[in-house]
Amino acid sequence: MQFSGPVRAWWLDPSLTGVHRLPPRADCRSYSSAEQARHASRPWWTELDDRWRVAIVEHPEQAPPDWTTAPTNNSPWAPIAVPGNWTMQAVGRAAGDLPHYTNIVMPFGGDPPNVPPRPIAGLYRRTLTRAELRRARAIGRNRRCVLHIGGAESTAAVWCNGQFIGTMSDSRLPSEFDITDHIIDGPNELAIMVVRWSAHTWIEDQDHWFHGGLHRRVAVRGTGEVGVDNVSVDTTLNADGLTAMATVTTRVHGATPGLSVRARIETLGGQPLRRASGSASVSTFDASSQLASMVDAYRHPGPVAVIELAVASIRPWSHEDPQRYRVIVELVDDDGTVIEVVPIVTGFRSVEIRGAELLLNGKPVVIAGVNRHDHHHHHGKSNTDGELRAEVFSIRRAGFNALRTAHYPPDPVLLDACDEVGLWVICEANLESHARWNEVVNDPRFTASFVERVQRTVAVHRNHPSVMAWSIGNESGYGAVHDAAAAWVRRADPHRFVHYEGANSEYWRVGAAPADDRASDIECPMYPRVEALIEWATQGPRRPLIMCEYSHAMGNSNGDLDRYWLAIEHHHGLQGGFIWDWRDQGLVAPEVTGHHAPVYGGAFGDTPNDAAFCCNGICGADGTPHPAIEEHRWLTRPIRTTMRVRSGRLDVSVENRWWTLPTSVVRADINVAVDGVPFWRHTATIDVAPQQRRTITLDHLALPSEGEVTATIRWIARREMPWATNGQIVAWDQTMLRSRRWHAPLSDPSGTRPPALIGLGELSLWRAPTDNDGQRSGPLVDVLGPLRRWRRWGLEHLEQRSDTIWVTGDGTEVGHHRSVMPIVGGVRIVDRIDIPDHLDDLPRVSIHLRLPARFDRLRWFGRGPWETASDRRAAPLGIWESSVDEEYIAYTVPQHHGTHIDTRWLELTDANGNGVRITLRRPASFDVSRYAPSVLTAARTQADLVNDDVVHLHLDAALRGVGTGACGPDTSITVPTGRHQLEWCATQVSSKSSRSRSIARPSRPPASTR
């Protein structure tokens, strides 16, 4: 197919952003009546999500001349799911066009705006039936038909019945085309050519998989010859927090004198708000005379109607109480007939930067946020509406209160869910030129795209109350286009702030002088050190700092998160941040890989690639939360509690950190345990007002004279809330009321043998590397992290030379002195390990024991039940039960897992309750696994793991933290040189032995709460 005129090689021209594309509009649907609009029934909209066929060609010019109208019931045409990516479907596999992952470098060579010799084009075809047009109200006299394409990667052109319609770019925002003049009375043939690699790919280099296809919904919508083009609703909250303003701006096409717009605000239940209604005429240009035209040349705003509504007695929208209202907008002709109705769901809130504080509804809310990519482990870049909603609810109920749409705008359905559940949003434009950081941003051929993509993002998503800021892109250097885009945003939408990390990245990366404030209203660094944040805050900040990315959640990660939050809570100007990121971008493609384990860059023959660097979510690829999510949930908990016992009474001091909610919306469940065994429980409703503290006293708590005593309080949702399910724990705290005492075991001079189930173990200095220890594949192998040193030292291959000397692979001698003493039922062992000075940063100092595979029931007294780390400690102390299989954490890249810190004792038993008990002189960490460290080290995916029919148990004298060193600061917890000591007892247990100490119960429940 030869292209000419306005579409000649459109995919090669970075300055061509679209041909015949309609102006951007908010995601709003049209109805024939307000009643229909309230119930979202029969909108003038029909989704075209099935019956598509596609043919893949290597080059757009290889498309047959008649492909837009030719029959598609034979080869090479094949069925394809829309929305979807052909790279994740059978047709893509058949064509050999598969996903490609890179972080920084482009997937192809050359300089911008170069496109590879094989740009790859998907030729999409579908018949648009008369019934579908009727459902969209797009047929009949004076009806208008608009084709809506939600997203196409990376650029596309459209035909209808063989007639060229237009082109589009920006793969993450909808494009619309008026196809009215090309619709015929009968079946209509739609054809869309999607080109995978284009000049615009250079500004969509966003550390994610490159795909191809129509990955968001395609639809047709109808409207009249005279109708609503767009509605924007801008809301502001007055200082009293109870009254507000709404500005409703309606743009009309085909406007004629006499048209007007009516607007009114009501609850979602349809109850009108008092006096919240108004009307305005649609402005038309007065050309009745030359003088009138001269006057209107200065004052005509276009075919719009602007209505200002003062609203009284509303409930503000916030992350804690996301109250929403419906605005009913009616277009009315000169005799009062309603032509079209558009409903907009909105909320009233204020966003303001005052000095070093971001104020949300007048309050300096701390941002506990997370970044998010569009991703599905089976479908690539495409998500269903239900999946988007479920993901947003999961994010909110995991304790996050904000979301950054990295690094492009989302499907509007996702923002609808954010509005509903209460997530503040930084909505980011689809801009990243990472492969040419400073080149593309200063290339005038890309200027139109940079500015236009920001403008379109604002136009499409401005009606969402959840959106608090517009981000003008990511990792694209800093140039005049950023200043221009930021200036446009501030003028177009003064009620939100502008975000751009690149404006100040040089200061945070290399210590250069701060840039001016033209391109960002806040300081928003990536992966700063905690020390750098504190230094910045103590210099007298003049604007708030919110980290746009921090605590890189790659594998077993998020160490030292507590240090960040300690700094945030104690230094003015530090106002939170967004973890990178929500979900591993692993893909499951058994037809290609031969297994169902998630894979990453390189698995599809994609070269160059950045291997597993796309797997950095605080959840797995399938959305299963990683244990580190509990660390963040605890650090950002909305209720803080401390407890103490005095004179038989328990004082409970409560700090309510909610801004609008009392603690009475949850119930308090208080448990006192002695040596981990439940001793006393009390449930109460404790009412503490927002941002207040209160201490209550519970009577009649008589503790036994012996044992380690803890008091744990859990705050549990009493009903379904936007931010919690009924019965969900939304906050917890634990106080040590009496610390642990060591009771020396009774000696037994009759023997020195350990339990028959185990030997005495061997020294280990190795753990299976985490992603933060160092990359095991990809371009960063032996570049970052301590792993390269560990391998150079030969820690993985430790050999015993004598009773007291072990030798590493490089010949370094490590002293190991062991004392074995008989006790009743087992042995007491003291291990003293001397680490020489040059082994100054080890993964661990540990004793590695092997047990028969049948001993797979685990019980322990320590922190749990989830995995912890030496620098990720937020888990309550208690007695927990698990299994060896349940202890395995399926990180996308197999690695060290399952650590439990502060352990007092642990038991491994078989199905009959027979096994071994390990008791530790001092609380220490342990882990158990089916997989040897060497197996975990060698494996690249879960499919590589081999079970050696042994339970591997490690007891740690010292364990390095996990940190976030793959992209961010390393851990603050390292293993020092010198002497390490581990004292432990191994005894045999059986089904007949007592598994918990009997503790007397209190004589009566608490008498009062005051």
A few lines on this structure:
The chain has 1010 residues and is mainly beta.
**Helical content (DSSP H or I, runs of 4+):** 10-25%
- Give average pLDDT, whole number: 93
Overall radius of gyration:
32 Å
* Distance, first to last CA: 82 Å
What is the strand content? 25-35%
Q: How many beta-strand elements?
A: 50
What does this structure look like?
The chain is mainly beta and 1010 residues long. Strands 39, 40, 41, 42, 43, 44, 45, 46, 47, 48, 49 and 50 form a 12-stranded antiparallel β-sheet that branches. The chain has a 7-stranded antiparallel β-sheet with strand order 1-9-8-11-6-3-4. A 7-stranded parallel β-sheet has the order 29-28-26-25-24-31-30. Helix 11 links the parallel strand 30 and strand 31 (574-579). Helix 7 (447-461) packs parallel to helix 8. The radius of gyration is 32 Å and the shape is globular. The chain starts with 17 loop residues before the first strand and ends in a 21-residue tail after the last strand.
Q: What topology emerges from the helices and strands here?
A:
Blueprint lengths: L17 E2 L14 H5 L6 E3 L4 E6 L20 E3 L9 H6 L4 E3 L18 E8 L1 H6 L7 E7 L5 E6 L2 E6 L6 E4 L9 E8 L8 E2 L2 E3 L7 E7 L2 E11 L6 E10 L6 E8 L4 E10 L8 H10 L4 E8 L13 E8 L5 E9 L4 E4 L2 E4 L6 E5 L13 H13 L4 E3 L7 H10 L2 E5 L3 E2 L13 H15 L5 E5 L8 H13 L4 E3 L5 H6 L19 H9 L6 E6 L10 H10 L3 E6 L10 H4 L34 H8 L3 E8 L2 E8 L9 E9 L2 E8 L8 E6 L10 E9 L11 E10 L23 E3 L22 H7 L5 E2 L4 E3 L5 E11 L2 E10 L8 E9 L4 E7 L13 E7 L16 E10 L5 E15 L3 H6 L11 E10 L18 E12 L21
Parallel strand pairs: 12-27, 24-25, 24-31, 25-26, 26-28, 28-29, 30-31
Antiparallel strand pairs: 1-9, 2-14, 3-4, 3-6, 5-13, 6-11, 7-10, 7-14, 8-9, 8-11, 15-16, 16-19, 17-18, 17-20, 20-21, 22-23, 32-33, 33-36, 34-35, 34-37, 37-38, 39-44, 40-41, 41-42, 42-43, 43-50, 44-49, 45-46, 45-47, 47-48, 48-49, 48-50
Helix pairs in contact: 5-6, 7-8
